[in-house]
Amino acid sequence: MPLLRETGEAVADAWTILPDDRPVPAGGAVVVSLKRWREERETLAGRDAPLGVLLPSGALASDVAPDLQRLGLIALDFPKFRDGRGFTVARELRERFGYTGEIRATGHVIADQFPLLVRCGVSTVQVPDTAKLDQWQAALGTLTIAYQKAVAGEELPLSLRRFKVA
Amino acid sequence: MTSSTGPVGLYQYDAVDREFVHERVEQFRGQVERRLAGDLTEDEFKPLRLMNGLYLQLHAYMLRIAVPYGVLSSTQMRRLAHIGRVHDKGYGHFTTRQNLQFNWIKLAETPDILGELADVNMHAIQTSGNCIRNVTTDQFCGAAADEVIDPRVYAEILRQWSTNHPEFSFLPRKFKIAISGSPADRAAVKVHDIGLLAKRNAEDEVGFEVWVGGGLGRSPFVAKKARDWVPEADGLAYLEAILRVYNQFGRRDNMYKARIKILVHELGIEKFLTHVDAEFARIRGPKFALDPELVAAIQARFAPPPLADLPGHCPEFEAAKASDPAFARWVATNTVAHKAPGYICATLSLKPIGGIPGDATSEQMEAVADLADRYSFGEIRVAHEQNLVLAHVRKDALHALWTELKAHDLATPNIGLVSDIIACPGLDYCALANARAIPIAQGISERFADLDRQLAIGDLSINISGCINACGHHHVANIGILGVDKKGVEFYQITVGGNAGIDAAIGDIVGPALPAEEVPAAIEALVNVYLHYRKDGERFIDTLGRIGIQPFKETLYAAAA
Amino acid sequence: MSTKAITANRLRDGSVVWYGKDGLWVDTVDRAAVYEAGAIDGALALAKQGLLDQIVVDVYAIDVKLSEGRPVPLRYREWLRANGPSVRTDLGKQASALAYAF
């Protein structure tokens, strides 16, 4: 499945999302479930390769807060695009916990959510094979004005000063 | 004060605001094109169209246009009239959320309609969908004599804050905020997801009393008080904290249990507030602070009406009342005091006897626009009771205004009386309804057609909803009527004792569900019980409070037996 | 067993339509195809192709009775959809040449 970064550019995926029933390879960047991370933390943390965790919808940013230094990627699962909990998790990871690694939206998201995800701190979005990438890219530039600050950036107070965002 | 010369009462859009609403139109145009091309499924498109006010109803699409905090200019009203004529069937319906709905809209034309609205700084953004809905307030804001704080400034700040909010656009369910700046609370704040009462402390600083978890629908709740005082500067941070707790913990497994009122109820208010307080403690501070300069800047974008310096006593007005009893009666029911001497607020009834509550024709909208230009600085308000208001009328011009209103069937002297009925569109239009609401309202209105009798009965609210979603606010009416479907037949459940104001209360069921044709007689029977027991000018709700529900119950059960 | 017809709203304008005998969507209920209970599932599956083709939304079966050989909706909600608002008989299908006298 194509992977888009926050700029809209398609990029190669360096990560493998590992189902729980597959063994963890010694090398390579892998993403494990939150459940597996909790159960096999010792082994996984000692591994000398990049590690990511996939948060199911309903998990909180605080569930991985103590481990953020170790995690190169946090993937947020959207089981249904209408389930907006991931927007809060992304924002909390950035604003509350200062996470600087990759935050990835996976599962069911639609192009129209792309700019909102980015504004909440998401850095990559996995889109369906059938997706028309030009529509996803166009979605980023459709609204050039926001009435709230994005997660990244400005030190100004939360504003009603309108921001140019695209 | 500001020297702004734009329309009175409205927030003045600047180039940035205008650009935003136009961009939003083009965004929706693209979404419609993708839907028609099959790039978006109906499931994916539905939340996008809802966030632009577009529903699919029984006969066609329905477009719900935002009237921010219920204020619009004569120019905007004329545009609504025009859209009604060109894209609809010559009329619109004013709603309990101070909005306007058109019932016969075509999807393919909607982007153009939204474009026509954007040209007059209007839109349909977030009038539906599982997001923060357009904020509602008191229809007399900025004019009422009892006002402590003008809530429009904060309503506008909330509008901006909530518009396309990146974190809160896919909430578990819809989220409604109401704000009132007067102790009388004409905005029904305690039956909203968040209700704000703006007030001043001993140091004359502005702050908010915050209520949370109110709402009607399947499980009605009066809101619980979250905080007695949140300083102005922290207002947005506190709301952000509440929304964040809701977005994380609100139920998503059952749409009937997804509103914040259920979360507050299931967690308990103490535990809920523990979460909110923790979040608030983390996020309050300079980053989220609402600075006074910004409040002042928003305030300055509201042009105040250029009121003349008039004496409080108006001999022409007193003489007109004395010589024209019909005028005096209309004044008694359809006006409230203005804070400026020599002025008065006038309510234009959209409840003619036997009419459809809240409906206005394009011709009436244009007439109101013209009257607003001549009598109220071009400014019009929509009341949540589905009436219109001209808020700044000179007392010495009021008789002339009334005379003109009569010609347009907008002068029914029934505000607050038994025929000033709130009704949702019901099964005549709505895809969710179980029963019709409008014909019930018409039947009751006709039964009490005698206006002298209505005046003798006095203050009495009757609200009708065509289903348990309660768009007609039946729970908080003195007499509430809920339509239900019993094996394909419309029945109506009656409640008494509800109240939407500062003493908000949910009504109690008072009798068996009745078929449509029996409802007006049943209402009359309840009114007669009240009249029988009434003492010393008591209102219906006072008598009920004193004697209890039993006499009312007995009457309805006896009639049904 | 009751007799059924299939209804939907047209995607582009939201107007009420019924699935006709030749597989096209029609504007009046009297021209709707009718199905006995055993045949409705198959017909509904065919009609739902209209969802995929971006022609209609919200496709479902309704109960009808036959009056002089023509289908009439049984439930009041469907009767309103076939006619128009009861409080504005000047509007909707009931007001146009499409109206069908019940």
Automatic annotation (TrEMBL), chain A:
InterPro entries: UCP030820 (IPR008318). Pfam families: DUF934 (PF06073). This is DUF934 domain-containing protein. It comes from Azospirillum oleiclasticum.
UniProtKB/TrEMBL annotation, chain B:
Residues 61-119, 356-407 form the Nitrite/Sulfite reductase ferredoxin-like domain. Belongs to the nitrite and sulfite reductase 4Fe-4S domain family. Residues 128-280, 423-556 form the Nitrite/sulphite reductase 4Fe-4S domain. It comes from the Bacteria. This is Nitrite/sulfite reductase. Keywords: 4Fe-4S, Heme, Iron, Iron-sulfur, Metal-binding, Oxidoreductase. The lineage of its organism: Bacteria, Pseudomonadati, Pseudomonadota, Alphaproteobacteria, Rhodospirillales. InterPro entries: NIR_SIR_4Fe-4S (IPR051329), NiRdtase/SiRdtase_haem-b_fer (IPR005117), Nit/Sulf_reduc_fer-like_dom_sf (IPR036136), NO2/SO3_Rdtase_4Fe4S_dom (IPR006067), NO2/SO3_Rdtase_4Fe4S_sf (IPR045854), NO2/SO3_Rdtase_FeS/sirohaem_BS (IPR006066). The keyword Heme applies.
From TrEMBL, chain C:
It comes from the Bacteria. InterPro entries: DUF2849. Pfam families: DUF2849 (PF11011). This is DUF2849 domain-containing protein. It comes from Azospirillum oleiclasticum.
